[in-house]
Amino acid sequence: MNHSDHEKYLLESIRLAMGNVKGRDRATWPFGAVLVRDGKVLAQAVNQVEDLCDPTAHAEMQALRIAAKAQGDTDLSGSVMYASGYPCSMCHTAMLLSGVKKVFVAYSNEDGEPYDLSAARGYEELARPLDQREMPVITQRVRDAGEDLYEAWQKAVDENRATV
C-alpha cells in the first residue's frame, strides 16, 4: 500500500469517529477503526462502550470482532489497523494476538492528552514491575479435584489437531 492508501483509511477512521460523536443523544467516545488486509476492508467500527455498556467495546476491538466473525476465524494475520486515535493497551494486545501486523493512527497520545484521551496510563501500568502495579494480580493456587484445567485444555487442542 502507498501513502495515499494509508491516508484514505485513516480519513475513514476519523469520519467514523466523527459520525459517532456528532448528532447523538448521549455522549460517546471519538474513536473509529478500519481493518484492512491486502487492500480489502475487513471491518469498520466505532467505539460502542456507552451504547453497549461494555468497557471492551473500543473501535479497534469491535473491528477485530466483526472481521473474525465474518471469516469464522480469529486469525487476522497480515491485516493492518487504521485508527483515529492511539490504541489502548487492551486493543494493542488483542491486535497483536490476532495477527495484525501494523497499526496506523491519525491522532497520537500527545494529541489526546489535553482531552484525557491518551492511552499512556495503561502502557505505563503494564511496564511497571509486577509487585509495583496499581492493580495487583494475585495468584492463589486453587485446583479442582480431578483433571488439571490446563492439561485438559492441551489434551482437547491436541485431539482437535489430530482430527483436522
TrEMBL record:
GO molecular function, one term: guanosine deaminase activity
Annotated CMP/dCMP-type deaminase domain residues: 4-130
Pfam families per the UniProt record, alphabetical: dCMP_cyt_deam_1
SUPFAM superfamilies tied to this protein: Cytidine deaminase-like (SSF53927)
Keywords assigned: Metal-binding, Zinc
GO BP, one annotated term: purine nucleoside catabolic process
Protein name: Nucleoside deaminase
Organism: Comamonas testosteroni (Pseudomonas testosteroni)
